Structure formats: structure tokens, C-alpha cells
What we know:
Blueprint: H1 2-14, H2 16-53, E1 57-62, E2 73-74, H3 75-82, E3 92-105, E4 124-129, E5 146-148, E6 163-167, H4 168-173, E7 182-190, E8 195-196, E9 201-209, E10 216-219, H5 220-229, E11 235-236, E12 238-243, H6 249-256, E13 276-281, H7 283-324, H8 326-334, H9 339-368, H10 373-398, H11 402-408
Parallel strand pairs: 4-10, 6-9
Antiparallel strand pairs: 1-12, 1-13, 2-11, 3-4, 3-7, 3-12, 5-9, 7-8, 7-9
Helix pairs in contact: 1-9, 2-7, 2-9, 2-10, 7-10, 8-11, 9-10
Amino acid sequence: MIFSLWFAVKRIVRRPLVAAGTMLLCAAFTLLLLGVGSYSDSQKNSLDGIYENMAVTCVITNRTGMKSDGLNIIATDYDRFTDPLYPLSRYVKDIMRLKELECLPLESEDEPDMPERSDFKEAETLIAVDSFESADALASYSGTPMSYLDGYSADFLSGSMPCCIVSSTRWDMLEENEDGTRTLLLALYDRENDLLFANPLELTVIGCYFGETNAIYMPFSVCIEAMDGEDMPRSCDSLRFTLNDNYRLDEFIAELRTRFPEPDIGATSAAGWKDYAAMVYDKEFREAVKATERNLSFAGVLIPVLLTLSMVSGALVSMLCVRSGKKSFAVMRSMGTKPGTVFASALAEQLILQLLGTAVGMGAYAAAAELSRTGLVSMAIFIVVYALGCAVMTYGTVRINVMKIMKEE
């Protein structure tokens, strides 16, 4: 063994250009495999990020898909997404319902005179929402200046406290109570269903916003509670939500279509739930997934190709190196050296150059980028297949006819 290593090192030193060329070849394969491996891992991470972070939104529309507000969606339909008893509720999150009512401020809390339907001609707008993203006027509420009392935030919409925010103009018009709070007493009218609330709704004003709209915003759950108190049918004007697990997109769509068909521009109004359709905005998500999977497939094909080329290269380099030194091997055989020792010496030369070239390539790559898991696995396979190519060709080449070579020399 020691003799084989000594002889291999001696041959490497005697032929520096050949050694440098072999090392450069191995370093090149190393850089290529590490680069492709890193690219493959980055695409896998990108794909995971697309599935986990890209929002796929679904909007309930009318049958033709031309309208997504003023739909008067009854509770038995939107409960399919909010009630855990229904299968569809397992797929959704960030449910955004909106209900628009007309309101008139009342002066006194003690048995106020309730207005009639005709009094709501000059009514103001009260909007019940699950989040500000449900309301077009404040959809980008992060860019709309808002001010809240201490202890409150935009999260109040997800609660059940009877409170609201108003415009800054209305805020300045409201008088403070003795405890420093401001309240609104409102008479309500649901024009869509022609329902007049018999009792007023009192809301604590917890903040204001600065913008052109003058609507009042309150939690959707408070609106539902008020409707239940009046024994009115619950409904919402619009409904949208986000898929909670993009990996289950196709499963969700299959379940969704059993109740809500795709919008059809040529559809006519039908009775009952068939008046509704569901628009799933998944085009961007699917295109991103398709593009990333295509990149992954490319990397998945390129790595085996590079490994195959490395095996062939190892075989060719070994054949050339061994044949160029066949006189030395013939002398060794004529002096009684066993064929196994000759084979070990020739193979050791190639493996030493391979490991040195691989180390150089890995060091150069690590200095510029982080080593990836797939890249390291590819490197381990490269070392094996390159060595295998070297071994096969070396074994065939060192089985030389000693007398024939000595006669030629």
C-alpha cells in the first residue's frame, strides 16, 4: 500500500501539467455540481415559499361573475366557510364579510323616537366588516392614517365589542362623556332587505380615520348580534377569504364546486344558492408553481448528466494517464510486481488528483457561496462515480502484455 502511494505521488510530481489538468477537470465538475445543487435547493425553498406564503383568494360573486358586492348572501351560505360543521370551513382563513346598513344618529338614549323608513333618505353609511380589507374605501388601511384610543387597534374588527371608528370630522363633532369616551346611538335600516331595526344600536367610538369617506366602521360580529336581537335573517353583502393551505388547493376547489360553480358570463339567474358563484384567484399561484417546478426539473436532469459525464471523463483521463505510463508499469511487472499492486498504484494516482481537485473546487465555491445539501450529496456521488470510471479503465489498461511492450521499447 505504501509503495503504491509512493509510486503514485512520484508520477504526479514528474508530470505536473497532466496532474494540473486532471485537478482542473475535477474542480470544474465540483463547481458545476455544487452550483446546480445550490440552484436546485433554492428552487425547492422557493416552491415551499410559494405554497406557504402566496395568498390564494376566493371571492363569492353573482352567477355571471360580474358583481361581488350587494349580493345579500344569507347566513346559510356564508356559514359554509365560517362554521366548523361544514367541510369548506377547513380550507379557509382570513374571512372578510361586509354588510352595509343605513344609519341615523339619535340624540337621546332614553326611549328615543325611532325614525321611519322614509326618514332614511339622508341616512349615513354604517359598514360592518371582519377587516378593513373588506371595505374598498379602506382596503389599504395601512396607508390610511388612523388614530385609536389607548388599548385599541385595528384588531377590534375581529372582536365582539360594540364599538366603531368614525371619520376625523365626525370625531371632532362628538361630545365626550363624563368618563372621557365618545358614543354613538344609531337607528339602523337594511335597505337591501327592507328591514327596519326596532331598537337603536349604541357604539363606543374608539378611534378615527383621516380620509374622504364619512362612513362608520364596526365589527361584523356586532352587526350579526344586532340582527339576531331583532330576529332578522342574517346576511352579508360581500364575502371573500384566503385559502389556509395552498397544498390543498385542488382538494378545496373540488369541494367548493359542489356548492358554488365557476362564474359563467352567459348564465341567467337561477333560484336559491345557484345565484352565487365563486371566483378563485389562483392563476398567479399556479404560474409561479409551474415555473419553479420547471426549474427544478431542469436541475433534476442536469445533475445526472453531469455525474455521467464525470464518470466518462474519469475513465478517459485514467486511460490516457495509464497508457502514457505503460512503460513504467511494464518495468514494474517485469520486476515481479503483482498486478494488484500495479493497479493500485495507477488508481491511487487518479484518486489523489481527484480529491485534490475536488477540494480546490469546494474551497473556491465555499468562499463565494454557501454549500447546499443537494450540492454536497451530488459531490459525494461524483467522487464515487468518477472513482468508479477510473477504476474500470485502469483495470483494463494495466492488464498489459509485458513482453510486447518491452519488445516495442
